[in-house]
Each structure stands twice: as C-alpha cells, then as structure tokens.
Amino acid sequence: MNESINQPDEADLKIRNKKRGSNSEVWSRFKKNKLAISGMIILAIIVILTLSAGFLYDYHTYCVKQNIPQRLQPPLSPGHLLGTDDMGRDVAARVLHGARYSLFISFSAVIASMLIGGFLGAVAGYYGGVIDNILMRIIDIIMAIPMTMLAIVIVAVLGPSIPNMIIALVIAQIPAFARVTRGSVLTVRDMEYIEATRALGTKDFNIIVEHIIPNVLSPIIVQIAIRTAASIANVAALSFLGLGVKSPVPEWGCMVALGRAYIRDYSYLTYVPGMAMMITILSLNLLGDGLRDALDPRLK
Amino acid sequence: MSENNALLEIINLKKYFKTSGGMLHAVDDISFSIDKGKTLGLVGESGCGKSTAGRTILRLLEPTSGEIRFAGEDIRALSAGELRKKRKDMQIIFQDPFSSLNPRKTTYQTIAEPLKRQGIIKNKSELADKVIELMETVGLAERLKDTYPHELDGGRRQRVGIARALAMNPQFIVCDEPVSALDVSIQAQILNLMKELQDHFGLTYLFITHNLSVVNHFSDEIAVMYLGKLIEKAPADELFDNPIHPYTQALLSAIPLPKLQQKRERIILKGEISSPIEPKPICRFANRCLYVHGRCRSEEPQLRIVSSNHVVSCFLSE
Amino acid sequence: MNKNYALDIQDLCVEYRTPIGVVKALNGFELQLERGKTLGLVGETGAGKTTTGLSILNLIPNPPGVIVKGSITVNGENFLEKTEKEMEKIRGKIVSMIFQDPMTALNPVFVVEDQIAESLMLHEKLIKNDAINKARQMLELVGIPSARGKEYPHQFSGGMKQRVVIAIALACSPQLLIADEPTTALDVTIQAQVLEMMKQLKEQYQTSLLMITHDLGVIAEICDDVSVIYAGTVIEHGSLKDVFEHPCHPYTEGLFNSLPDLDNRTAKLKPIKGLMPDPINLPEGCAFYPRCNYAMPICKMEKPDKSFRTDWHYVKCHLYKNGNFSERKIGINE
User: How many other β-carbons are positioned within 10 Å of the β-carbon of residue C127?
Assistant: First the structure.
C-alpha cells in the first residue's frame, strides 16, 4: 500500500531547503529589518549597562550621598562623565541606576498586565456570549479612566510607593492586553484545527492551553515590547508628578522633575535622563515593530 | 437496509440556527442509516447543509432535535464526559488540509495528540512506535515526523489529518470534502488510500462532497441534499442510472465529463437557490424546477419509496 | 504564421527572484490561440497557469517577478515591449481577464452597474449616462435583470457575481478574453449555467478565449484546442479531439487516469506517483522524469523537443523522438 514512500522525491528537496521550524523563519525575516536589529542591539546595550550599574557605580556613594562641593558640575568634568546634580551626585551613576528602576518597574507591570489581561481576553474570546460581554464591559470601564487619575486615586488611598505605582500601571494596561488577546483568540477559535481537536475529545482547558495560546503569542509578544516602552514613559510621568518614586531614588522621571528648577543654566540635568528615556523607548518600539512585521502570518 | 447491520442511524435530525432574519433551517429533518463497513455519500451544493449535517452527527454542533444512534446507543443522551469518551469511535477528516492542522505542532505531535488524549498509550516509546506505525499506514515516511504543516504539500497534510483520525481506531469517520482542496492527481492518491483503509480496518464512512464523479467512485449509497432536506437516496449505481428527482437529474447532467463521445442533454437550471431562513412549507426546489406544477407550490413533498432502497421526495414520483 | 493567431506566445521565461532561490515559473513557454477559438490551458497547481495569464497583461508583481525573455504577440504587437501606459489602454479593452475568485474580484462599496460602467467610461470614453445604460444591457446579456444594477456585490450569490465579472470583462468587446479558473469556485449547476453563457457570448462577440483550468471536464465542454502545461512548459498541444482521443504525453495519460470514470465506477484510480518538481530546483532533463512510468535514461539528461503527430498535434517527449506514434505505448484506464 505504500509505494516506496521511503524513496526521497522532489518534495523532500522542498523540505530540506526549508528544514527549520517556523521560529527560524521568523528570525531570518527579523534579521533583514535593519531598524529592528538596531533597536535590539541598543536595548541589549542598555540592559547590559543596567545590570552592571552596581559594579560600575556603588549605589550609596554615587547616587545617594550628597557631595555639595561638587554640585552642578557640567558634563565631561573630570570624574563625572555626565556631570553632577544639585546635590553633587553623579548624573551618569544616577542614570544607570535609574534604568534599573525604570526597566524593572515597567517590565514587571507589563508582565502582570499580560497575565491578567491575557487571561481575561482569552476567556472572553473563547466562550463569547454573556461572559464576553461582561468582561469586555469591565475592560471598557477600566479603559475610560485616565491612567494618571487612576494613579492619583490609588496613591491617595494606599499611599505613594513603588508597589502602589505598579498596581496603577498594571490596572491601566490590562485593557490593551485583554483586547489584543481576545481579538486573536476570536480568529483562532474558528480555525478548523480547534474543531479537529474538539473532535478528539479534548477538554476546553487543554484546548486553550495547548492550541489557542501558542497561536496567539505573536501579537502578545509585540504588545509586551510596545507596552514596556509606554510604561517607561508612564512611570516617569507618575514620578515626575510625585506620585510614585520619591527622592533620592534616581528614577528618570524624578530626575527630570528635580532638574526642572535648573533648566535654564543647567539643562543637562533634564535632558540627560530625558535622552536616556527616549533612547530606551525608541529601541523598544523599533524592536516591537520589527517583531510585528516578522511575525506577520501574511508574509509566510 | 437490515436493521442489525446499521452502525449509524439518523432519525429526523434537525439543526437550526438563530439569525437576525429568523430561524435558519440548515438541516431540516433528515433520516438515513449506514451499515457497518459501507460508505454513504452525502452530496449537494453549497448551502444544502451537508457539512452541518456531518458535524451535527458528531455533536460538534448540538442538534436542535432528532435522534442519532451509534451502534444502537443514543448519542444525544450522553453527558459531556461520556461523549468525550465516545469520540474515539467517531472521527472526522476535514476539507482544508491547512487550517485543520495546528500550524505550531509538528506532524508527530499532531498524530500523537489523540493517542495521549484518550489515555490509550502511557509510555513514551510505545507512543513513538504507534505514531510511526500510523504514519506508515497512511503513506508518510518516518523522516517527516518533525515537519510543520507549512512545509508539507496539500496531499501530505491531508494524510496527517487521516492519520490523526485513525489514531484512536474509530469505527466511523465523517469525511467532509476530504479531497476537494487537492490537485487531481493527489486526489486519486488519497482516495485510493481511504479505500484501502476501509477494506483493511472495516471502516464506515459518511462521505460528504459536491463532486459527483468522486462520490460515485467511492460510495455504496448516495443521498442528495437540497436546502437542508434529503430529496433522494439510492444505491450509487441506481442513482446514476435512474435519477428521479429533477434536481438530481440536473446535478448529474451538469457534471462536465472529460470525454468527447457522450454529449448528453444538459439540464440548465434557472434561477437561484432560495433562502434557508424560515422556508415556507412547500417544495423547496419549486422556484427552479422545470416540471413544477400547482401542488409543488402549496405542499411539501415527503420521502417515498419508489423501488427497493430508492427513496425520493417529489410529487412527480407519486 | 499560417494561421491567424489572436495570441502568440514564444519562448516565454518568467522567474520569481525570492530570498530562498529563483523560482522558474515559466520555461520556454509557447502558446498559440487562433482567432475566434477557445484554447484550454490545463495543468495542476504550480505548473505556471496563473503566471501565464498575468504575464499576458504584464501584471506580474515586479519585485519579485521578472520576465526574462520571450514575446507575447497580440494583433501583431508585442506586449512585452509596451510601456505601462500603453498596457493600461489595452487592459479591459483589447484584452480582458477574469480571475478565479468572484468573491473578491468586485469592489464591495460600489454598485455593480457602476463597476461595469467604469470600464466603459475609461476605454470607450462614454459619458456616465450612456455608460450606465450600456452597463444595464450587459447585465441583461449575462442573465441578470437590469433592475439589479443598483445593488451591491454582497447582495449577489457567487454565480451571479461571476456573471457580473464576465459582464465587466466583455463590456468593451475585447478581442481576447483570458479566464483563469472562472468556474472553479462555483457549484456544479451554477458552473453549467456560467459555461453555457460564456459559450453563447463568445459566439456573439467573436472573442478569442484562453481558458485556464485544471478541470478536464470543463475543457471538454468549451474548448476547441488544448495545451497541457507542466513545470512551466507546454508538454502537449493539439485540438480537443487530438488530446482527448490520442493523448501522447505520459503526464496527459496520468491526468486522465486520475479521474474517476463514471462508467466503470469501482475501477481503482491510477494516480500519478510523486509530486510536481520544485520550481527552484528544476532537473536538467525532462521535468516529468521522476514520475514517469515510461522513463528512459535519455529523459534524465536531455529536455525533449517537439515531436509532431499531425500538423498541429505535438508532444515534447523522448518516446516519440523518431516519430513512432503508431505504436502507442500508453492508453487510458487500461
């Protein structure tokens, strides 16, 4: 019955040429996008610098301890690559340590939003009907509240601190993930292979975990990159307004706030952390766009 | 149709969908049975309800009313858990070989899933052996086990779908247009494979298609559907030699034959298929029928026996 | 040229230059369509049928598609030497094309009579009123009541949409109509209606028709001549009678044997083993060699030339190199 199935034929050439999983095809598409690659490299550099911040500059010595005689030195002064602030603290050190705060807070907020929002979106998309309606209306309500106001309310109730700021961020980001996940789940849910696995007797939970989630990961991954970028800006904004991180923590938003008073003569106090923010956000966005293009199934 | 040989019995099956315009009668009171080891071809054009019927029989869509008896057991009465267990006896092969396979799973994983799901095989090496055995049965070389669907051509993907359906040793398989999306020469390969599997494993098929030459080749009996109703059913030879319902006649005459000699009289139907939403209780083919007369527009015809094993629902045949 | 050709394609080579390799879609492709007749171009997926249709109207997407060489002559003019502006005047007026999928061929936001009128206003320079009137006439011609001209595409069924597409294609009375699988997506009874209509219109307008399809039954219904395409080349060509009653190429034989025979219904089907070759890695000799039941050593090394069985029936196969058509080695459903 098998007609020499083991003899290689023309189709094998096709397979040999493309003998890689869908992941390496995505990677080769991504590689071609120069902007995306630069975004990725810049981000990698930022992460490496961030991780080594503790080795380069001891936190207390450089970021917290005041050094009034050395205050307000401009960039490229001896011993202070990016100058010092009004308390004499090294700006470069503060920027690097600040990165840890920005990245850590943003990323953990985004991951938490993804888990919660993703789960809600998946359930809404898979079951549809009343469940979908209720969940989506809750999401709509959350979306209607401006993030800043939400943060103010939370901070007013719970007090200003980093964890509380993260809570505000998480809640504000849930709608984005919920909607993206729901949209993807709606598309995947009607694919025949979902029907096929139901015909095998698979339970709903297994269907969601084994079949639906792996196929909706792509847009979620893109969202993670993009929302981390947005969160960094949000964290900075909240800190700038005094709703989150407080001095002397070297968070970028705080630094910008402090620099405000000196903006005329010592503008570097504002634009150095501002540039740091901008570069980080830009690289994350480039990475996110590159991922989106590379993962686009239409290009298959 | 001997009662004791029937593996599948469908009695007055209905599936309606609620739409904004009213109730859509997708499957409207069909009845038939299939004997063990035989193939029933279910033919009709788009919108006739044949695909819906196939899925409703497996309870992938819940029937609105009617009975489904599999090996004498009432399928509708099963609870969700019992139904899941029953799935291993009743499987389905889909039309589109691309969208019916999870693009993120390899061939091995797709075929292994049903084996794991039903708890048939517990240990890993036994599982691997069984998967390879299934692949060989459907004509897939072992070296293809780590390929993804997009790396395979349509014919091979369809073989993966067939292997998946066979994994649990089903008795009955619903084949929903299994070769329509394939090239002609690949169609022939897959049809031969399905026939061999039927002989080898004693499978019973419900073969759903719109392609009449294929269904003729493959089926013992053929049932013709139009707008949710079963309008004619007969053994394959009989249907082709002696079609009685005007729609069946038109359908058969419309097949473009790749032969030059037989220039038969083409019956060209006028008009378009009417709407399946809230249909009136008249003959649903009346607006296109060449032989329409008064009674057709006021009453709905019922299925009547015209000769042994041949039933038709048409006032002309009475 | 002895005969009067509406379309004459010589030695056409079309490639798609992709990152994973060069896809040779058409290789030395040749085709002649006589004026007023219907030529069927039959082949399977990947053989190059759609590329042929698109090349004629110079619609091959430019990266990555490249027309490497060859000539496409219509009415004595070589289309490959024309500029884009000149081609715009030709498309819809001298040569029209019907695509496979009627669901997406019509613009969903315009009513159908406007879509037909668009072509008339563009090519025949009619004013809007005249164009709409002519459009309504075209609708009646294809069997759609002209009152429905003010409806949108989504209000029509698949068969009717395809008729609208045909009305648009024929509105400016083109000399050459290219139909790429026009009835594949339609139900068989609707297909019969549409084919019947196309036959009548063809008679009426004296249009030459290139019918691209994989369905041998459709070919038998409507075509006068047949070209069989495999891996980017025509491997057999002749009149309908020639190819259906005296098929010579083993691939043609294989195609007929793959079809279920309505007369002998339980006969086992004889599929062609294997798959079409990868167009990135075409073999040196005959492209059909790995799948051929009659393969000889020479087939692997050399591409076969044309061998003529009659004045117009030719086949590219080494079996017939010495002109020995009488001892036919192959047969259908034997």
Answer: 9
